[in-house]
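Quick one, probably user error.
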């Protein structure tokens, strides 16, 4: 049976779908809250003036990096707070054999790894066919998680500067365990308390109509090489309420500006993947300049790439996946490459549940995500790649110039040598960031922006059909439509949106 690769019900129908500033609350007639000092603000976020106003507010937040520029605290104080919370949480992670998993087991009939509740996620098999590549289809384990989680940031103005409520949250697969997460980071199983633990703090701002004013709200994909058709709701809402303003009462939460988050994004493994993907959905601050291609041409390019793709996926039983072995502690390839499925036991203070066990995917090496960029008539452009991943809802999304994961099936990405050979003067940004630590164990990618200004290379000036020069603003517009931009490209877009890297 071929897996249906259509989008989830209720999402856009093509590259030219609705913008990110049309959240479910607005479509349902949700009451909108005025910004502090702007009672009775007319209109909706669909209006160009409202979008420009939000972009200007975001630009002010990016410029605020300390108390002198409008932030409530210094970034150094935030780093010290994170260090203190790591000590306070006292997290312990240990690898365990599959037999010690509590509530998880391999089904006798299929070999699939499932939870006794039937919720959370399952580890199954996936067979991938690529009609454009000779040879037999490849097979691998894959996660299936049909429920849509909430990744939500709560925003509020303090003294005229937009701040965002972030959480110091432990995830078992993170390097350093604890990283900055969004206000709410929860699967449906978690916030419906299938685990029997406590409720999710501040969830009501994202689920109760009229509780907060939506700034952006869209569905986005996750890793299409490790998930099969996984989506999460990426949402930012604004409140005028007094929330988490007493550090003693809410020790795991702090209000930060975008500029402060940008400073933290220059550090390795501090800002988690879920925060990065939500930030990417905000409109880009500042003007973008004249693009080489119109927005219609960019949408047409992506649509053509999707129509050309002949990559298809179908589920298979995990027990039948060819080339993979299962022993007491791992499901792994027979050559021990790419990634493994392992099990861990977790003890953690400050989580909805104090201890649990679960499976995780463990890559066998780090990944690379990089955008090449150059200026055309003074305007920065990114070399985007129409990237096919079998598990994506529409198979093809816009990715970075180079995206290499440990399960890349031996493919050598175009322009990988350019990225590898880049010297210090051309590397405008480089940091290591963790992937989603609730599902992946020590999965990291080196994220880069590499300048090719002045490089006289016809392969760069006239790239192959699956690559296109687009502006950061055009990448942001695609992100706003949902299921158009890969999670790797969204991480790099968040770096730009927060001011962590500047291309001009």
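Nope, works fine. Designed sequence:
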């Amino acid at each position: 049976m071929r897996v249906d690769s259509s989008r989830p019900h209720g999402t856009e129908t093509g590259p030219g779908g609705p913008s990110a500033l049309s959240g479910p609350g607005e479509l349902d007639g949700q009451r909108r809250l005025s910004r502090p000092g702007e009672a009775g603000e007319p209109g909706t976020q669909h209006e160009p003036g409202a979008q420009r106003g939000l972009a200007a507010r975001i630009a002010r937040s990016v410029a605020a990096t300390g108390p002198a520029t409008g932030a409530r605290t210094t970034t150094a104080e935030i780093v010290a707070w994170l260090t203190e919370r790591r000590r306070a949480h006292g997290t312990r992670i240990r690898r365990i054999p599959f037999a010690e998993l509590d509530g998880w087991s391999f089904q006798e009939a299929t070999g699939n790894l499932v939870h006794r509740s039937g919720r959370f996620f399952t580890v199954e098999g996936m067979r991938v066919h690529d009609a454009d590549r000779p040879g037999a289809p490849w097979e691998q384990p894959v996660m299936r998680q049909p429920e849509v989680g909430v990744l939500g940031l709560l925003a509020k103005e303090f003294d005229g500067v937009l701040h965002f409520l972030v959480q110091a949250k432990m995830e078992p697969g993170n390097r350093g365990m604890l990283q900055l997460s969004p206000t709410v980071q929860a699967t449906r199983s978690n916030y419906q308390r299938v685990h029997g633990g406590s409720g999710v703090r501040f969830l009501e701002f994202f689920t109760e109509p009229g509780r907060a004013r939506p700034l952006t709200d869209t569905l986005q994909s996750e890793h299409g090489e490790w998930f099969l058709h996984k989506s999460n709701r990426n949402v930012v809402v604004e409140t005028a309420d007094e929330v988490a303003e007493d550090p003693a009462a809410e020790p795991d939460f702090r209000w930060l500006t975008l500029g402060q988050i940008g400073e933290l994004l220059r550090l390795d493994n501090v800002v988690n993947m879920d925060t990065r993907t939500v930030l990417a959905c905000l409109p880009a601050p500042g003007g973008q300049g004249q693009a080489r291609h119109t927005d219609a041409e960019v949408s047409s390019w992506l649509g053509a790439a999707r129509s050309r793709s002949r990559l298809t996926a179908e589920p298979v039983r995990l027990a039948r996946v060819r080339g993979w072995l299962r022993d007491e502690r791992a499901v792994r390839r027979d050559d021990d490459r790419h990634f493994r499925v392992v099990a861990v036991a977790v003890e953690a203070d400050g989580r909805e549940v104090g201890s649990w066990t679960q499976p995780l995917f463990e890559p066998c090496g780090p990944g690379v995500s990089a955008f090449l960029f150059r200026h055309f008539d003074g305007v920065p452009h990114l070399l985007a790649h129409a990237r096919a991943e079998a598990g994506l809802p529409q198979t093809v999304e816009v990715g970075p110039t180079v995206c290499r994961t440990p399960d890349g099936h031996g493919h050598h990405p175009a322009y990988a040598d350019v990225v590898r050979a880049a010297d210090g003067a051309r590397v405008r940004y480089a940091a290591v960031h963790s992937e989603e630590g609730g599902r992946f164990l020590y999965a990291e990618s080196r994220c880069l922006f590499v300048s090719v200004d002045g490089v006289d290379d016809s392969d760069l000036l006239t790239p192959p059909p699956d690559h296109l020069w687009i502006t950061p603003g055009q990448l942001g517009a695609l992100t706003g439509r949902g299921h158009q931009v890969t999670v790797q490209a969204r991480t790099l877009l968040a770096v730009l949106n927060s001011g962590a890297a500047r291309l001009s």
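DSSP finds twelve helices and 24 strands in the chain.
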